[in-house]
Structure prediction request, 187 residues.
Amino acid sequence: MEFAAASAAANALRVGLNVAVQRSRPELEFYFEVHNDFGPVQHLPERQLLKGVKVSASEHRHQDIFISFFVVNIGSRRAETITLTVGDQFSRRGFLKWGEIFGHPIHQMAPGQLIYLFRLGLNDLHSDDDKLKDIDLTVSAAYNGPRTFWSWLPMLWPRLRKRTRYRTDFVFNAKNIATDLPPARYA
Prediction:
């Protein structure tokens, strides 16, 4: 997991370098990464099935395909009072919820800081008839910049209205990743 976070942060900093130099404000960006992981080798002994059929010994690796989502501050200033929300149209299968990070304020996020949000498995991307979902997953971040002498006047009106100054929306569709899998990573 730390390799994925490190590579996502490094890529975000490379991509956002131009933005960070040009903008003197916080800028939150959402990123996703497709994983194709194989677990350790499991040795299955020789066994006997029904009616005396023998199955020879074999080896097996469990494959785990999922998508990780991150938010990164690629701006040159600290982001404050960040509130993350998820749209209510996209639902996850089973008993998994989105997590408590959504709807609760994150007090600050330094430039270059990465926060892991959630993971979606293949079963979350497919509908009941085993086709990819057509419903979009929308993740939003509402946040403010740091309080400075020059920023208090433009931020006064949004604060009186209990709103944030900046907003970033991210829309993900399952068909965004309907392609070949990335190279496998082995445990």
Remarks:
- Residues 2-38+61-180 form one domain.
- The longest helix spans residues 2-22.
- The mean pLDDT is 81.
